[in-house]
């Protein structure tokens, strides 16, 4: 029984790692996987299960922090980072700095403090996730269509403070489960005339301190629910999220300039259709709400 529960923890860690920074909504997938399949884990209990999800999210956060470590070190003036070449020039003055990150964090930070409990109470359900997945997919398609009209899109080192703030606003919109933090912010970055890679870089770098703060605060508030016999469960979930988070981020950043956002939008729409069939067609929703 314990082995089965550990496997569930690893599966949740893998799902978190693969989806946290892809524009498909990790929160949405976690709700879907847990509510429609795993039904959480008896080994942890409801309170500890929530804490476990916070811990595995930290695994994904540390994966992103590792990928962009040189950028963070450069912004903190404890290292150097060679900027991407622009117009055939090997080096250019770097404009991305900590102020951009802070400005982008402000909207989500304020709204998160004000409405986090309300969102968790009323929006964490399969139907609301479906809405977020579909609306977010349409937004991504619109951004891709707009990007085709933009000549000489900007790199991440050309981002302005106004652009950073507007992208931060879209991160706040992604507090709706299923909408996707990366999906909304990358799309907004593209609409701000940034190239897809630049929008992705800024999205990930901005998300790390936001998520680290939010997850860290949640962990401190719920630390009492972590028991000694559950430590291996947490470690396995954290490692799974970290490892698969690294794989997901590096693969996504390698592909995003080539495939854009459309394939992810199509995946989201197909996922909504499949969920609708399972949830409404086979009575899974009734089983969940009646459990």
UniProtKB/TrEMBL annotation:
InterPro entries noted in UniProt: UppP
GO function terms (MF aspect): undecaprenyl-diphosphatase activity
Primary enzyme class: hydrolase
Substrates-to-products reaction catalysed: di-trans,octa-cis-undecaprenyl diphosphate + H2O = di-trans,octa-cis-undecaprenyl phosphate + phosphate + H(+)
Primary localization: membrane
Residues that span the membrane, as ranges: 50-68, 96-115, 127-147, 159-179, 199-220, 232-253, 265-285
GO cellular component annotations of the record: plasma membrane
Record's subcellular location: Cell membrane
Assigned keywords, A-Z: Antibiotic resistance, Cell membrane, Cell shape, Cell wall biogenesis/degradation, Hydrolase, Membrane, Peptidoglycan synthesis, Transmembrane, Transmembrane helix
Cited Pfam families: BacA
EC number of the protein: 3.6.1.27
Record-stated family: Belongs to the UppP family.
Record NCBIfam families: PRK00281.1-4, undec_PP_bacA
Anything else known: Bacitracin is thought to be involved in the inhibition of peptidoglycan synthesis by sequestering undecaprenyl diphosphate, thereby reducing the pool of lipid carrier available.
Record's protein name: Undecaprenyl-diphosphatase
Protein's organism: Staphylococcus arlettae
Gene label: uppP
């Amino acid at each position: 029984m314990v082995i089965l529960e550990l496997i569930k923890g690893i599966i949740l860690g893998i799902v978190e790692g693969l989806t946290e920074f892809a524009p498909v909504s990790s929160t949405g997938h976690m709700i879907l996987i847990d509510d429609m399949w795993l039904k959480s884990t008896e080994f942890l209990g409801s309170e500890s299960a929530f804490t476990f999800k916070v811990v595995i999210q930290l695994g994904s956060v540390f994966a992103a922090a590792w990928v962009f470590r040189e950028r963070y070190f450069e912004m903190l003036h404890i290292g150097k980072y060679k900027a991407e070449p622009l117009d055939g020039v090997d080096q250019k003055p770097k404009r991305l700095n900590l102020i951009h990150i802070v400005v982008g964090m402000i909207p989500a930070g304020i709204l998160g403090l004000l409405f986090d409990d309300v969102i968790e109470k009323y929006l964490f359900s399969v139907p609301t996730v479906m809405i977020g997945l579909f609306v977010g997919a349409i937004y991504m398609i619109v951004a891709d269509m707009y990007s085709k009209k933009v000549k000489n899109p900007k790199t991440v080192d050309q981002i302005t403070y106004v652009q950073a703030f507007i992208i931060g606003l879209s991160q706040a919109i992604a507090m709706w489960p299923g909408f996707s933090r990366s999906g909304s912010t990358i799309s907004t970055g593209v609409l701000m005339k940034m190239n897809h890679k630049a929008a992705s870089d800024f999205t990930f770098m901005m998300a790390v301190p936001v998520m680290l703060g939010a997850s860290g605060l949640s962990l401190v508030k719920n630390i009492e629910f972590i028991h000694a016999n559950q430590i291996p469960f947490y470690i396995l979930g954290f490692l799974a999220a970290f490892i698969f988070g690294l794989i997901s981020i590096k693969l996504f950043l390698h592909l995003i300039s080539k495939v854009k956002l459309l394939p992810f939008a199509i995946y989201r729409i197909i996922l909504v259709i499949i969920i609708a069939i399972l949830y409404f067609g086979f009575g899974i929703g009734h089983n969940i709400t009646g459990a």
